[in-house]
Amino acid sequence: MRLRPSTSHWGAFSAGLDENGVLRVAPHPADPAPSPLLGNLPSTVTDPTRIAAPAIRRGWLERGPGPDPKRGQEDFVEVGWDKALDLLAAELRRVRAEHGNEAIYGGSYGWASSGRFHHAQSQLHRFLNAFGGFTSSRNTYSNGTSSVLLPHVVGSAADVLRNGSSWPTIVANTELLVAFGGVPEKNVFVTPGGVTRHHTPGFLAQLAERGADVALISPLRNDLPDRLRARWYPIRPATDTALMLALAHTLATENLHDRQFLDRYCTGYPEFERYLLGVDDGMPKDAGWAATLTDIPASDIVDLARRMASHRTFITVTWSLQRIEHGEQPVWAAIALAAMLGQIGLPGGGFGHGYGSMGDTGDIGPDFRVPYLSQGVNPVRQFIPVARIADMLLNPGMAYQYDGAERSYPDIRLVYWSGGNPFHHHQDLNRLRKAFTRPDTVVVHEPFWTATARHADIVLPTTTALEREDFGAGRRDTHLIAMHQVVEPYAQARDDYAILAGLATRLGIGDRFTEGRTPWEWLQHLYGAWRDHLMDKGFAVPSFADFWHAGEYRLPQENPDRTLWADFRADPIANRLATPSGRIEISSKRVASFGYDDCPGHPAWLEPVEWLGGERAASFPLQLIANQPRTRLHGQLDGGAVSQAGKIAGREAVRLHPADAEPRGIADGDLVRIFNDRGACLAGAVLDTNLRRGVAQLPTGAWFDPVGTLCVHGNPNVLTADIPSSRLSQGCTGQHVLVEIERFAGEPPGISVRRPPVISRESEM
């Protein structure tokens, strides 16, 4: 059996078919901690939900384009490729002629393949730009709130999210790691674009061996590896900002803050201190005040603040904390707290964001741009924040606020999606289903019959990464990997490039899209231009032929020791931040000028709706945490062996404390119904003392399988609220939701997502 090299978002590997046609996968030999998610890959060859041929929703085929409440409910008709592309080309022409390019929404938000040429978003956006442009999206569901906030506070989101302090500097210098949201090891196996060497598990082990103190601040004990010596503070969800403010209050009132650092490197601290002391509102944000909100004793809060002031302390905030209502506040408050300690820019001290949220955060691989396909320039300036898609579709023309500006939603007539699954990412899926009935046409490229494909009008089957040739590397990856074709394309599946080239030819823009190149010629061209650029800088880079034969190229390495804002600390004048003041803005006059009551000009405690201390908890008394799954990447390869092994009777597993299960008559392994006033889902109960009472945990990513408003498979986004973090960022708030849970009695509805929808052939009509 010949194994061929490839890579994925969860790791580089080699794969091949054995004598029985079974896909065998081996991790990269240089990977010190291969991801268990590689075990999901064999399902890509035999998954029963693969899309075999172009398919058109029957209602669209018979009645033509237009809003349709039956979208997502009707069967599909398989047609030939020529007919599918002819119909789609005609519809693109119609929408452009009648409504303009602004009426086309090029979704393509998602992970798709790790390959850099066959990157679905780049392919689709390149095509749509050649066609005259499209309404686009900005930011991500993962960290969209922080991406908008951080430039106001520290001048750059990229510096924090991509160039934070490296793990070696933390391991060597940090005495106290204060981890808001922990450092969830399950997430560090994933990096967009691919990862060859998973370093983070090893660094966490070194931190444990060194005996560094860790304060785990999370309602979930397993948000930190067991081997780390940690004190667990089982905080009430959504109250991290209150705890940070109380820690800051203790520093201020006990004169433990670094006034020289605040004066030289920051602006706006006096306004923030007035808020901490309650000068204007009469409410000091002290430890006693925070204890009633967080359920952490006041004495523990004061003790932690003193320990932070007397040790080299690194404060990290996971991305999960900003995926809630007012998600800007914990990030901003943590930066203010780190500034008060005066350790920003010192090795092992300061602030970090996303450690344990993604594998590249703090990693030691090079910050290196690899070959990529240009998307061109979008002539349409219209865009939406990515998490506002349902608002856009349901409310064309409606005004909304975003980052200090008033904008309005366009009237979208055609949604074109490739390489993503909004029925995984988005919140309140019953509302999203309604939103998807509004456009004239929905087009989806997909290898599998996901919920998004089932809610489309035109479904075009695409190849997986194993069925084509490409190259891939992720952020701070150590290698560029040659992604060899391992298996033949499934049925009639084509790659996105071939599909879009066929469309482009029909629309008279074929040469502009393809530039006359085949995929293989594109790979050689992109690699060659990249190689020439590196060789001009003195790097030795193999020819494309040698690279392809070897299967990889080891990227030039960088100094692994990296401290965020070290240059700024060394000289804040020469290395001023890109904020209005050039310094860290603990209070921001610009943000304050926007007048947003849901995001004022400095960090503040703002009570959310979905939390255990609010009125809504009287009806729905459990806080559900909808975090990232341990058994897959988002919803990808949910049918894979690792993902399926984590389910209970084929449904997603929900963890809850035995003390919450007992009065509800729920035993370990029971089928339960999780519900609120938005919807409900079924899940299998797992009783676990490693989470605080009043909290349940259900990972995202189970393929949405609706029966009415009930998801029978266990997708938590049937429960979550489709509301923004604030008017500043319009970010995703899907991390927390209030629910009730009950034991399910009777015969449950069957699971349908593991088989295709009803399909007929055109000859059978």
Biggest sheet character: 7 strands, mixed
Order of strands in the sheet with most strands: 6-17-18-19-4-5-32
Instruction: Please state the overall shape, judged from the principal axes of the Cα atoms.
Output: globular
Residues in helices, as a percent range? 25-40%
Name the average pLDDT.
Answer: 97
What would you report as the Rg, rounded to the nearest angstrom? 26 Å
Number of helices: 26
Distance, first to last CA: 44 Å
Beta-strand content: 15-25%
| Number of E-state strands | 32
Task: List key phrases describing it.
alpha/beta, 765 residues, single chain
Topology (SSEs and partners):
Blueprint: E1 4-8, E2 11-17, E3 23-27, H1 43-46, E4 55-57, H2 58-63, E5 76-78, H3 81-99, E6 104-106, H4 120-130, E7 136-138, H5 144-154, H6 157-162, H7 167-173, E8 176-180, H8 200-210, E9 213-217, E10 230-233, H9 240-253, H10 259-265, E11 266-267, H11 269-277, H12 287-294, H13 298-310, E12 313-317, H14 328-341, E13 350-353, E14 383-385, H15 389-394, E15 399-402, E16 405-408, E17 414-418, H16 422-425, H17 429-435, E18 441-446, H18 451-454, E19 458-461, E20 470-472, E21 479-483, H19 496-506, H20 510-514, H21 519-536, H22 544-550, E22 552-554, H23 566-570, E23 584-585, H24 589-593, E24 622-625, H25 641-645, E25 653-656, H26 658-661, E26 671-675, E27 680-687, E28 695-697, E29 706-707, E30 710-711, E31 736-743, E32 759-761
Parallel strand pairs: 5-32, 6-17, 7-14, 8-9, 8-12, 9-10, 11-23, 12-13, 17-18, 18-19, 24-28, 25-27, 27-30
Antiparallel strand pairs: 1-2, 2-3, 4-5, 4-19, 15-16, 20-21, 21-22, 24-31, 25-28, 26-27, 26-31, 29-30
Helix pairs in contact: 3-19, 4-19, 7-8, 9-12, 9-13, 9-14, 12-13
